Amino acid sequence: MKLELRNLAGAVISSVEVRDDVFGAPMNEALVHQVMVGQLANRRQGTAKVKTRAEVSGGGAKPRPQKGSGRARQGSIRSPQWKGGGVVFGPAPRSYNQRTPRRMRRESLRIALSDKVRAGQLLVVENLELEETKTREMARVLKALNAVSSVLLVGDGAEPEVIRAARNLPRVKTLPTDLLNTVDLVNARKVIMTLEAVYKAEQLWGGEFVRKKVSAVDVTPDAEPDEEEAADD
């Protein structure tokens, strides 16, 4: 398939041929949803904590006699039913990490990129070289590309000038190609990729993923010395 190649003024200057398996993959909502859930779960710190009745200070003395007062039996003012007491079944530090297979992550990236192409939300530009490393210059470029909010700029590697010019713009995020992920792709209304970023994406996620297998090295026993060599010794 072919995608339009634009300059920073927003004009179409040519077309670029891309791989169908990266930019033309069919939709699989269940797969994309599962990868996104795993990615968002891995962002959670899991540090929420409340105190149980064993951890709340105080409550050592029995608040009132067991019998004779006519009121309910109470053993501690730090029981869960008391104000200031411990919490039952509250959150405790835990890990929310979910393991997502690499093959699924690769496929979800291809699906997300392909969905942006079908929706007309993926723009390929020749480069992101600005005349000035200024926020207003980046805002002018985005306006010319009709990408004014919720924009994801994808370049091939760290580009300090682009990052500096875009970091003060609201809802504009910059990422290198190798850090591209499904959540950022789905959340962005416009995805702007440089031509080098497109080639890098095809190199990273094009074709079928095959895990490399480490084969054992054949160790052959040392050959026995010849009789003549043994005689010389």
Determine the fraction of residues in helical runs and give it as a percent range: 25-40%
Looking at CATH, which topology of one domain would you report? Ribosomal Protein L4, Chain: A
Report how far apart the termini are.
73 Å
What is the average per-residue confidence, as pLDDT, rounded to a whole number? Answer: 89
DSSP summary, beta strand count? 6
Structural class: alpha/beta
The CATH architecture classification of one domain is 3-Layer(aba) Sandwich
Radius of gyration: 31 Å
Question: What features would you describe in this structure?
Answer:
- The chain has 233 residues and is of the alpha/beta class.
- It has a domain at 2-42 and 101-205: Ribosomal protein L4/L1 (Ribosomal Protein L4, Chain: A), CATH 3.40.1370.10.
- 33% of the residues lie in helices and 13% in strands.
- It contains eight helices and six strands, in the order ββαααβαβαβαβαα.
- It has helices at residues 20-23, 29-43, 102-118, 135-144, 160-166, 182-187, 195-205, 227-232; strands at 2-6, 12-17, 122-125, 151-155, 172-176, 190-194.
- It has a six-stranded mixed β-sheet with strand order 2-1-3-6-4-5.
- α4 (135-144) crosses α5 (160-166).
- The chain is elongated, with a radius of gyration of 31 Å.
